[in-house]
Amino acid sequence: MLRCFHSMLIRFAVDPDAIDADANDLSVSIAVHRRLLKEWRKYGMLVHGFGPLKESAVFSQVNKLPQECRRLWKVAIQNSRRRAASSEWNGYFPNDDLSDLEPFAKDFDLALLESSRAVVVGGVGIHDSSRIDARLHGLEICKIHSVSESQRFIRADEVAKRPLPKGADCRNEWNERYGEYVEHAAHVVVVDRYIYANQMRRTIAGENSGLDRVLSSCFKRSRERPVNVAILCALQHPGPSVTVAEQGAIETFVHELEKRYCGGGIRSIEFYICTDRDFASHTHERYLRTDYSVFGIDGGIDVFGGDFSHKGSVVWRHDNAETTRFTLNEAALKLSSFFHKTLL
Question: For residue 129, which of 44, 146, 192, 207 is within the disulfide window of CB 3.0 to 4.6 Å?
């Protein structure tokens, strides 16, 4: 049985012997590595052996790959999520019995093995892609050639596209969908024209907002890995220009954010606010971006405010590397902002 699904960020480990298993057939090797690296970028976090990555068994095998495959891996290693195992696992998989892996199996959700080893040692059926090993806390054992058919990655893709229902438990939905992405990102960006209005409304009602959900997740991070946060929003007002009173209210709002969230696991908060007209001229999308992963939330980030979602929302996912529009829109919003402050 598949262990309880806590996050759509999948912690996976790769059998070093599987990395160069197709080295003699370059076209097959490239195809396998492209599939693996695509899933890694979308929904994965590579877990390598204890210690620095460059001293790991995986890194050693990557250096033995043909140049084209090695180049793909080097780009992925530089730009994709990864971490060392928390226990002293050396990064190798047992040759005879995977039960020897039991002390370390809680560090990852998915193990990718060379196909014959997955069958002989991992117990995966010849015609199957993967199996769940109850002895290893529900770890999924998968043939590396079948990585895109992994139950874990398929489930992650389903969650990424699943609409948020009205009345859903906001904490559970946040943790399952985005919590670990925020936990492991170097940069978190929230783009939502109604953040300011919703935050003011929630504050008056004595409730936590969706922005509070994001910032509290960032604040709880380790101080050793602080995150940079950017907030881009709009001011809804009927007049042709921003009044002194509105400017003062924004200053107070930002000061309260600074008192509540600066420190902890947050290195800095960049706050930008445009007029509603300027914001709408650049984008109508509302989304959360963690490094290159863009998670659209059509109902706005405030659907995660309070205990239960007050409305449903369509959600979507994009890779910022696949299109420049998110980077361009964010740059345009920053240039259009009439108020900007960096909170440290």
Answer: 146
- Please say whether the dihedral angle defined by the alpha carbons of residues 83, 88, 91 and 97, taken in this order, is positive or negative: negative
- Please state whether the predicted TM-score (pTM) of the whole model is above 0.85: yes
For 41-81, list the strands marked E by DSSP.
Answer: 44-48
The residues pairing with 313 across neighbouring beta strands, listed in sequence order, are 164
DSSP 266-278: EEEEEEEEEEHHH
Q: What is the pLDDT of residues 42-79, one digit of tens each?
A: 999 999 999 999 999 999 999 999 899 999 999 999 88
Secondary structure E strands in the chain: 10-14, 44-48, 82-84, 110-113, 130-133, 139-143, 187-191, 227-235, 266-275, 287-290, 293-297, 315-319, 339-343
Backbone angles phi, psi at 337, to 5 degrees: -70, 140
Is 23 a residue whose pLDDT tops 70?
Answer: no
Spatial distance between the Cα atoms of 144 and 305, rounded to a whole number of angstroms? 40
From residue 272, alpha-carbon distances to 28, 57, 65, 216, 332 in Å are 48, 44, 45, 19, 11
Helix axes 26-43, 151-161, angle to 10 degrees: 50
Residues in the chain: 344
The residue type found at 301 is I
Strand duo 293-297 + 287-290: pairing: antiparallel
